[in-house]
Amino acid sequence: MDWHTFTTVDFAWMLAIPALPLAAFVIQIFFGRWLPRKGDWVPTTAMGFALVLAVGFFLKAMGIFDPTLYIQSSNPPPGETGLSLAWLFGNAPSGAPNIVFSVLFDNLTAVMLVVVTGVSFLVHVYSIGYMEGDKRYGRFFAYLALFSFSMLGLVLSGNLLFLMVFWELVGLTSYLLIGFWFEKPSAAHAGFKAFITTRIGDVGMLLGFLIIFKHFQTLDIVTIFQKLGETTGDFQHWPGWVTAAGLLVFCGAVGKSAQFPLHIWLPDAMEGPTPVSALIHAATMVAAGVYLVGRFYLFFSPSALLVIAMVGSFTALFAAVIGVCQWDIKRVLAYSTVSQLGYMIAALGCGAYSAGLMHLMTHAWFKAGLFLQSGSVIIGMHHEQDMRHMGGLRKKMPITFWTMLICTLALCGIPLFAGFYSKDAIIAGAMHAAAHGGPALWLWYFPAIALVVAAGLTSFYMFRLIFLTFYGEPRSEHAEHAHETPWTMTVPLMVLAALALFSASPWIFNGDVLGHHLWFPHVVAHPEKVEAGRLVVEKAAEEHGVLPLVMSILVALGGIFLAWAFYYKKWLSAEEWARKMGWFYKAVYNKFYVDEFVMKFIVRPVVFHWNVACAAFDKYVIDGIVNAVGRGGVEASEGSGWFDKYVIDGIVNAVGFTVQVFGGIARLFQTGFLDQYLAFTAAAIALGAVLFFFFL
Amino acid sequence: MSQLQAYIKDLGWIGPELVLAATALVVLLVELYRRGRKSGWSLGLALVITLAAGFGLSWLGRTFSAALGRPVDLRLDVAVLGLVYVLVTMGDLWFKGDKWDRLVPGLVVLAGTLLAGYYAVGLMSALSADPKGTSVFGLQLVDSYSVYFKLLALVSLLVVTLFTMNYRDLKRGFGEYYLCLVGAHLGIMFLVSSNHLLLIYLGLETLSLSSYLLAGFRKEDPRSAEAAVKYVIYGGVASAIMLFGFSLIFGLGGSLDLVEIGRHLAGTAQGSNRVLVGLGMACTLGGLSYKIAAVPFHFWCPDVYEGAPTPVTTFLAVASKAAGFAVIVRIVAVLGQGPGWLEKVTSLMAVASALSMTYGNLGALHQTNVKRLLAYSSIAHVGYILMAVAALFGAATAGEGGTFHVDPRAAESILYYLGAYMIMNLGAFGAVIYIAKSAGSEDMDDWWGLGWKLPVVSGVLVIFLLSLTGIPPTVGFYGKWLLFRTAIAGGFLWLAVLAAVNTVFSLFYYFKVAKVLFLKPAEESRGVTVRPAAVMAVVLVALGLLTLFFGVLPSALESLAGASAAAL
Amino acid sequence: MLGGILNQVAGGEGGILLSLITFVPILGMLVILFIPKKQHDIIRTIAGVATGIPLALSILLWFLFDPSKGGATAEAMQFVERHAWIPTFHIQYYLGVDGLSVPLIFLNCLLLFIAVPASWKIEKGVKGYFMLLLLLETGITGCFVALDFFLFYIFWELMLLPMYFLIGIWGGPRREYAAIKFFLYTLAGSVLMLVGLVAVYLISAKEGNPTFDLMALAEMARSGKLGANWSVLGMGFKTWLFWFLFVAFAIKVPIVPFHTWLPDAHVEAPTPISVILAGILLKLGGYGMLRINFPLAPEAFRRFAVVLAVIGLVSIVYGAFVAMAQKDFKKLVAYSSVSHMGYVLLGFGSLALLGFAGGAFQMFAHGTSSAMMFLIVGVIYDRAHHRDLNRFGGLGSRMPYYAGLASVGFFAALGLPSMSGFVAEFLTLIGAYEGDHTRWMVLIAIVGVVITAAYILWTIQRVFLGPMKNEEYKKFPDISLREAICQAPLGLLCILFGVLPFLLLDTMRPSLEGLMGVLGLK
Amino acid sequence: MTVPLVWYVFLALILFTIGLVVIVSRHNLIYTLMGVELILNGANINFIAFARALGGKYPIAGNIFSIFVIVLAAAEAAVALAIVLHVFGHFGSVRPEDPNMLRE
Q: What residues in C contact B555, CB-CB < 8 Å?
């Protein structure tokens, strides 16, 4: 690891990137109300500068263009000066376990910095238009700035503990932003649900960190990797606790990136304003889970990777199937995000390290674009989100239509668009994993199949959205006089559409249409010494030749054709096919009854029992796994509340009662009659005499 | 002539008693003079008697000083006599009206007590050299132990007189009242220092008879009459039984002098004439425990304390109890000599202590009349002290020939606690007089929220209650702390635990009073009509400060108790 | 000249800094004694001054305190004042501080200083109220500085009495019941401590040098001399002594079986009193364990550490569950205190240095966060005059600043990272994970963390979010400047020690190492 | 022939028990006082008998004691009767159970 490439001054400048939004947040929170235009320009300019800095560092890292430029940590080896802060114990002897704050930079960080600052800046600009006239306009920008600070902090932190600190701060800001219009009970509840679900994941992650801290006495990523090297004998045989720790850390990623069991909060998170959905629930926060897996990749043992691949691919397929039957435009995009995240996780699981992270970058751009475009559609349609009332917006909102079309094509993986290059690499990786699978050979077939089918479904439901929204006749009077959104909203759309085209491989300049020499895998890749025990995928493309390429293009076009048939040409009527598929359609329509399952087996038994106690809450707590946990808890506490009141308090009052009773006995003797007194005395004397007589 | 000389010299040792007797005489004189016809011969009679008393006192002073080998300041006697004479003769002219009828005898008694106190302190310092002291007239043993109790008695006399002067319910007959009061204290003086069965009986009777009269002093109130009759009958029976016990002890012990009885009993064989011993022991202990109102013989205590006028109740609760304990310690020390008798007596005492502790505390729970509550609390405290006495004798090892080797620290704890008990109860009863006077009733239900109207006295009452419960910064806590230590050291751990449990019970009723006084807003409480004299409040505050002072720096009272305990 | 005085006051050996911090409030009380009852404002200013001076002195103490000297042993104690008090029983007026007590003294003086402006609403018997408040401060500070067991017991009782009257007279509707219950619980505890006190004294007397000096007793206990050879009901003297003292302090912490007084006391106590009760009085239990209970019976402690950890664990989970079922806002916060104090015990039970550090840090962190939460409840109670969570709703829109401050307080209690709560929980969990037989407990403690997050967020939702349920809440004024000033320093402390925990941990670490040495765990 | 000591003691015991029985059984204050007198006389007999039997340094100590007892018994009777009279004035009866206003 070449320590001298980045000097302390560079790391100090790096810290400036998160410092800018933090300053903006502080200014906005305390003085936002009195600033001109309620201070929306403060966070926006701050993000602008942060973007410039991020791009600067990106170019510096690309300038070096050396994939072996592995992790640079600001935590100096003993003797060197560096930017680090002994966080837990200042005066502890050097050997003792301690947590030291340090900045960490490598090519992955460079890319993530650009992605986060870029999307955040565009969302800030977009929000100026979108949030116009909102009662708490200033505070929205403050929360956006706080989110950006914590996301950037997460990306830069070199110590797992600080990664977790920023991780939870990101969760907090998503809670605040989802529940931004907290007058709406559904919004407040969605925030609550999001925070608790991610909290469950974070708690798993914390447990993983505990195990690591026990064994390595530190949470600094670089030192962990060095010590990991020694314990696993250069990554050949993996001890059990490493797999366990890896899977627990992955729990955090499952919670944050809405993978299968903990995905239910993301669709409800759409209650928040659309820029929030774009920034947080499409591009950055949900990507944090993938980033964590990417950053900590060395730590995952082959068996852990197997589990990650399975979870990722299942989520991709599962979410894509549900996405097909959604009618709310934002929920379609939400399930599509869950599916694409499944793609990235599956890619990393299958060993396609750089493919997965490239997809993260490209997905960030076009998914953010899609959300912003759907936002402008919603604004155009006066806050109408149901696609059945839309139609024929092509002529009324041309810019939104064209930018949305580009982003949709990118998402479906059509060649020439960014999505194709990253998705194709992932499918290639999956194929490779299927062929060279690790321990459980037949299991590895599942990711490949699932990802291909999901790709088809993705293009089907995306184009279903396009045809329902922009083609055909306007189906409601809102759709009649929909109008284009102002320039502050459309410019970000256009920038994102451009990135959706050229971010993966700038084919206009180097003409590499089929993506043989993409810049991303060249920059973000594995260091060789780790190669040995791992599934190396980088050269997979050549090995399998053109098969994955043809497969992905065919499947994408097939999906588009089907959507065209169903919704544009109406050769096949959607309703008739739905009837034919019968129960399967109903299952898919109801999101595979996951929410209902959670409701039935976890929430309802507790709620019914509990609402006998407090009916007022019943309506409030119906859905969501969070309530399941809460209600499960209340059931136990209801019992302990009773135990507490009757048993323990009972004993204390009983003592008081017995004292009163004994008091009563004492009063019996005090009759007030003199002769009885004398009788008692005489008896006492007699008793005394007898006692002395016998015992003497 | 020399034997007479010796007798006269001995007189010096019982100085305080003589002074008290003189005071009683003077009080009688003052009453006679104020009521009697103002004629020449009565004036002359007064002159003669005062002169005789004066000469007697001064002569006594000289002999006393000779006995002690310390010059006594004669000028003091003359000054006191002058004051007395002026009071007696001219008083009639200036101190007219019934207000002064109440105060003049009181003032005389105060003067007498102070003088007796002066002598007693002199005796105490003289005895500090050899605490064993000398036996006087073969009847008395004037040692630091007995002088300590004499001091306690004098303090109680002082405070009770002050209370009576502020106690409005007594309408007339002040002369007789003070006469009986001084007589009772004279009885205590003799009882405490006596070493002879006869003198014990005489002292006890003097004390009892005068307290019967005192108990029934409020003629117009039937409750006082009832209290008196109960007291006299119960007292009569108990002292008769005790006397019978004494006669049997005399038979067994072969002599009337306690020391000889002890020596004689030590020699008797085990189990000889068990009937006499059993009955004698039971009667004696029964009679004595009537005096301190330990459980099997406590029945008179609550009724009499409630019925009698409050200053008398104070006297009964404080002085007569302390005297009772002094005698019990002396007699048990003697009876203990008997073969195998000691464990029997101590276990009996332990049982009595446990019973009185629990009975006292539980009984007090339901009381609404504060005096009756304090009566039960005094029974409980008797239990605590009996615990220490039992521990004292439990751990005692038989010395050679009729004397005991007793752990001085245990005796010291008993004396310290008696001192602490006196201060606490004087204060508590005084506060009850003050508040009952302004609230118009002794019933707690009428006292709601009075704490805000009489902040000083209620505050002081809370301090006394704290001390009675045994909460740290007070003398009561340190006293209890010593008692606990003696009990645990003496091996009566179960008694100590029972006492701890009782302390927690006692919290209930002591704080019922505090709660009643303070936890109700001021405006709901009864209007306060008349307030007793300010001097009363001053006395109470003084006692309160004393309670706190000895609580924080207990070494002062502790050293006094330690010195006097050495005599045992 | 000032330097001279400062040196004399704070000088290592001859200084009287500790006595000043302890007895300045008493001087304030005496001054108030002579102020006429009607002059409420003068009384309040004097109370403010009388609590302000100790606060300044405690900050000075923290700066002058040299952490490197370590703690928990006689020579490591700083600012020692030692005078004979009752020579016949070898009782000394022996004061001293180390890394454990300095932060808690500062917290105590800060909370009392905050309680004075927070008591502006008290109109009934103002004079009596502030006098008792100052007496309370002396009692608590005294406990933290006393190194003589008897002196500690005296301050312990001294603290008990004003608390009884403060709850009993100025409390809510069921105040007598709550006051008596509080008094009985703590008195039972102190009676046990008294028995321990006596037993220790008698045993040390048998050993030859009768003393109440905690340090000497700890030394004796370590060398195994402090103990008798009899055993009752199968348990030796040392075990009995340990359990007697443990129960006395456990009632104060409070941990599960002895905690039922806390909700009643909090519900009935006026806001500033429950701030002090939750903020500092609970810490006395934990501090008492570290200073007295464990050093006096080290083997018993090492043997029963697992039991302690289990009790702590039960408190965490049980407290969290019961808190969730509460309808009354203050009772919920009270039960959350029970749950949070469970971490302290879990930390101590883990026998690891990080566990002790976590427990000690949690005592400080919980002090600030729960005090802030009670102030928050107080603000709502002053306006709505009820605490029923179901009737609040949608206050966030009417009172934005209040919602902001409240969420800082709630998220600190939640254990959100970057807040002091998280550092304490993280350290405790690390400590628990390192101990071999406390490792499985981490799994259950984690459940506690999730439940805590659930019931706190649910409370925020019921009070601040959602539609405005009740019309007459519309006209509630937002948080006033005075109320905000009370809460601001606590919020800042939560964030400061959350972001930079080494400020506090550096003070505590050497003393904890010293303590581990005394307990024979090193 | 001298009567052995044990008979005297026996006589005293009889007097003592009769006195006790009288006190307990009769519901009249005057009878109670009589019972007390009986017990006192029983004690007197004891004193004189033991004095006679023991001799010792002060042979007539017991006799002097009994004289004192007689004097004090008289004093006590006077005081008791005065109080009983006073009670009779208030409660109109001499039965011990009538005056029980003081009870709790």
A: 86-88
